[in-house]
Structures are given as C-alpha cells and as structure tokens.
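Two records follow; treat each independently.
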Amino acid sequence: MKNHKYKVVVLSDLKEATENSLKSTISLVRNLGADIKFFHVKKPTDVVKRDSQLSTFRTINEQHNITTKHIENLIKSVSKTYDVNIDYSHAFGNVKNEIQDYLNEHQPDIVVLGKRKIKTMGLIGDSITKFVLKAHKGTILVVGNENTLDPDIDLSIGVLNSNGLNNNESLVNDLLLQSQKPLKAFKVINQGQEQEKVEITSNNKVVEYVFERNDNTISNLSKYLLKSNVNLLYLSRVSKEKDGLKKSDLKDVIEKLEIPILLSGESNTLN
C-alpha cells in the first residue's frame, strides 16, 4: 500500500448530500489512512442583500459565524461517530476561483463531490462539477443521496470499461485489496463488437457483465449494479475508439447511476 496518507478534500454546498459525502469518504479511505479536509464556498451574492457598506460587513460577519457553526456541528457529529479527524474551512467569493485556489494549495489525491437528484438538475452545480473534473488532476469520488458508502459495510467494487488497471493507480489497487470477492467487471460494447477478456491487475477473481450499447444501456447498467450488490463503481476515463462508452456518456453515467462513482485521475483522462 501507499506509504503516506492520501489527501482527501470534500467539496460541499452544505445541501442535502453533504453528510452522505462525508460518510462515503470515511468508508472509502478509513482503512488506507487519509488526511480529510472539508471545504465550502458561498457566493457573496448569496450573503449580501443590504445596501450600505456597514450593513454588508455586518451581514458577512453574521453569515461567517452561522456557516462556521453549521459546519462545526456537522463535522463533529460525523467525526465522533466514526472516530475520524476532519479539518474544515469555508470561504466567501467566486466559487470556481476559491475551489481552484484551495486545490492548488492542498494538492489532494482525491476530491469528493456530492450530487443532487436529477430532477433538481444534477450535482453541486453542473458547471462546478464540470469545472472540478477539468481542474483536479487526481481521483474524484461522486456521491449521491441514496445507496451511499457505509463505513460499517465492506466495499464491493465494480469496474466499468477497464480492460486493465494501471499498476500506478495505487489508490485503486489498494481499494481492490479490500474489496469483497469476486470483483465485478462491467463492459459496454458496440453492437456486433467482439468482446475482449477483462484483465484486472489484482488477485481478485472477476465476474464479467457485458452490455451492448443502446438507448437503455445506462439504465440497465444501474439496475445490474444494484442487483450485484456493488456499492462503488470505478470508472477509468480512458476512452478508446472501439469502446461502447464514450466521453459524451460521462454526464449521464454520473447523473443516472445510483451508487458512488470513483473516477480515475488525469493520467487516465478521457480522450
């Protein structure tokens, strides 16, 4: 295993998926050793609604105290339950700029994002999710409101469209060693395409599931993931020309799959 702690940053809008994001983060890395940080950004326009400069300063100070207390209560509850230390901070400013500065400063191995239900249009903000996918060089964990990771339940990892896992992906290899056996490998292929054998660079036995690409592929995949008791799906962002799952499918995969998704780092970025 990696001989130093993984650095994890949980980005949150302090809305409905926040506690699930924290619990899933703890579940993912609690046996690996990790330094977990929590970061929230609030736009000034969400805070300042008064006209005078004095009122503006007073409002910002009030909101700073309210937000700090809110985060403290949330973090303390989760930290106490699972005996994990989590550092936390927040800022007022341009959300993308503040996130970029925070990531540049802390250089995390893993960034955790929450997502809302599809009917409320996606993640912590579709544009923010898209921004983080481009800005962060490492692994990204996307967590929704249902079927989240539970620190008290072992990981059961599935891999999607990965013909092989790079030995340099230390995080994934460390997680595979902890995953329930056998490993489930899911593959989306084009109609009529010959299926290649899935090779996983671990000692796990592999059960393969193959789906031909059609309009219902992602919905069918989501159902099989739940039936197969997979609670974390690893998705390599490598896209080969012959693959049935394309770069353009990534948004649908993130939004429609009902379990947490672990997206590979930039070394395996989609073409």
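The next record belongs to a different protein.
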Amino acid sequence: MPTQRKRATIKEVAARSGVSVATVSNVLQNKSHLYSPETAERVWQVVRELGYRPSSVARSLIRQRTDTIGVVLEERQNVVLDPYVMAVLEGILEYTVPRNFPVKIISLLYQQEPDSFLAHLDDGSVDGVLLIAPRTHSRALQWAQQSDVPAVVVGSTVPDTPLTCVDVDDTSAVHRAVQWLIDLGHGRIGHVAGPQTQWSARRRLRAYQRAMQEAGIEPRPEWVAEGQYTPPSGKAAMEHLLCRAPELTAVVCGNDWMAMGVIEAVYQKGLRIPDDISLVGFDDIDSAQWFTPPLTTIRQPMRHIGIKGAELLLEQMEGGRRGREVTLFPAELVIRQSVSEPKR
C-alpha cells in the first residue's frame, strides 16, 4: 500500500527559499510592498515545487477573511459559450489560483429572482468582487458602488462610478478601423452594433459614427443594426442591413461572435466576402483566423484584462478600497482576408 505523501509546511517553504516564515506569508498574501520581485519569484517557485497549500480554513479563521473572489456574470453571459468571458476568466484564474485565492462564479443567467444574486454577495463568502462587463442598469454594479467590499469592473469603462475599471481602448480602435476602410475607398460602411445596454457597444457605435462624420460621410440610420453580441443576433442584424441598405460595401461588427452570423447572412444572400462586402470584427477570438474567409478584426488582450483586473482587486483587498482608477489596454487591427477595396 503506497504511503501518503506528507503535506509541505510553510517552514519548509521558508527554509528552501532562504527567507523567513513571515516573508513567505507576506508573499502568499500578496503584500508586495514587503518584499522584492526576486524574492516573490523564488518563493512561488518553491511553493510549486513542494506543492505547498496553506490551510484556507485556518487562514480564514485567523484573519476573519475567506480570500475568495466573486466573479459576477450578467444575465446574458454564458461562461461556457461566450469566448470573451472565457478569455477574461482565464486571465483572472491565471492570476488568482497560484496565489491561493479561490474564485466563486456568481451568474445571473439562471437566477429566477432579479435580486437573488445579492445573497451570494452579502453572505460574507467573498472578500472582493470582479464584475465582467456589467450592463448599464446592472443591479450588481449598483450594489458594488454602494458596498464596502472591494470591487473592480473588467471589460467595461463605466462612466460616473467610483469603481476601478480595466478595459480596452475600443473607441480609438474602432475609429481607426473605420478610417482604414474609408482610406481603402469604402464610403458606404455599415455597423452591426452590440446591445446598447453595454457600455462597450455604445462606445463602439459612437466611434463608428464619429469616424464617418470626420471623413465627411453622414452615417444613415439604416446603416446601423443592433445585435446582442451573439452569432444569431449578428445574422439577424445583417439580414436587416441587406434588406434596408443593399448599397453597403463594408460592415464593422461590434464583436467577432456577431461577425460569424454576419458571414452566414451574406452567404445565404448569394453574396461573397470580401468581393461584395468587406467585414471587420472586434476581439480576435481564437477561431477568427479560421472563419471563411479569415476575419479581419480588432484584437484586444482579453486574458490580460482579466489578469490586470484580478491584480488590482487583490491590491484593494490588501490595502483597502481606493479611488477610481481606469486602465485601458491598446487594441490592434489584425488584417486578414475579409477586407478588400470596394468592387462596386
């Protein structure tokens, strides 16, 4: 019968790392002001080698904390299907798991009562909250703004809020993409917008409109259709555009997932991409390069947004809630085969 492996202790981690037990404890608690980056790297290396796991129960009792992070998903976000949510969540876990901060997923998708999720936030089970792309009238966002629990918004830049936000500079990115299409010769450009209950969708729509107007092109109302950041809604929106505005030679989508539906609508109409209609997406999800044709899109660092959001939240959990801070990552236009000069 195999012998049970003895659990490593914090004293063993300290001895092998060449530091004190207090220093190991500070590294595990992410008190970065008390040690150097080199020390942290050495300690984490030993932690991985020994498979050390501090007792979460004992730590919670001593510190009167759970060190658990709540990740709040809105009612339309499906963590399994939505590639954006999955990428951001991957970044969150990449940062929190090695530091022994458990993550509690709080999804509004299956909540029967609109406010029932508050019980999962107010029951003392989480010491900090990450809100992934909250909507404009989000109850979770309202709760976070009024609560003393540290909270960070990821995937959205919410105006008029005291909360720290981590997002992509989508305004500049969409403006740049539309201007690039105009420089290629496209003057009749449509936009499949995301749901206007999302701050990101509102910003991207305004950026599209501003780029067109600055080029002396007044975007017509029939050149814009709203989707829900999903493939079926993208298809429906594009069918609407093809019916009301057949003159369009290019379309900019609010995200890649809707662009998938747009491609289906174009092909069902007997048209071709990019010969008849050029197409630009947003996100650069993993499958974008495998679309037919490969999708020109705006790449945003979704995983890094999750990492940064988790980092800032842990800093708040250790040092206390602080004033609003906004971190915007730059975006990159990735040119593939879904765009060409207009043929008509």
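Discussion point: The domain at 69-168+302-329 is CATH 3.40.50.2300 (Rossmann fold). How would you locate this feature using only the token line?
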